[in-house]
Design goal:
With 156 residues, the protein is mostly helical. The chain is 58% helix and 0% strand. Bound molecules: zinc ion (ZN). The site of zinc ion has 6 residues, from loops.
């Protein structure tokens, strides 16, 4: 990162202020809530950004790459504070710090595509998009070391 837009969005997520159905309902808007990603649960902050099936896939992808053990906390706020501790493994790179923001941003874009444009991407596409976004955010720090997304993934 850190474009201001993404940083602000992350802040909205951990403050549970990003405009999910949960927030709209809290503001008194009548809505029949359904998660756009899995269509099974109501759309609330913790579900959409932490526990939804699609979301779990994204988290697992990075947890697997990092080789860490991780139990998902209940809130996005806890995730952000706990996630900052996982990387202290002598790694000189701190690309992993961007992972929560990257997952949340990717999900929110997909969610809005489904919600407003009726556009649905496959889970494979969403995963690829998430990795590409992380690469894009980290690229500046990796100039001269990594030229392509494939190389980047190889180095994670
Ligand atoms: Zn869901």
């Amino acid at each position: 990162m850190d474009s201001l837009k993404e940083a602000c969005f992350t802040w909205l997520v951990i403050r549970r202020a990003c405009l999910t159905h949960e927030v709209l309902q809290r503001r008194g808007i009548q809505i029949c809530s359904r998660c756009y990603m899995c269509e099974q649960e109501v759309e609330e902050n913790g579900h959409l950004f932490l526990h939804c099936r699609m979301t779990t896939d994204l988290w697992n992808m990075f947890i697997c790459i990092l080789g860490v053990s991780w139990t998902m906390p209940r809130t996005t706020f806890e995730v952000l504070t706990r996630w900052q501790r996982i990387g202290k493994r002598g790694s000189k790179r701190d690309w992993w710090k961007n992972v929560p923001a990257c997952i949340w941003w990717t999900l929110w874009k997909e969610r809005n595509g489904r919600c407003f444009e009726g556009r649905t991407s496959s889970s494979q596409t969403i995963k690829m998009r998430c990795l590409s976004l992380l690469f894009f955010w980290c690229k500046q720090d990796l100039v001269g070391e990594v030229d392509s997304l494939v190389e980047f993934i190889g180095q994670l």
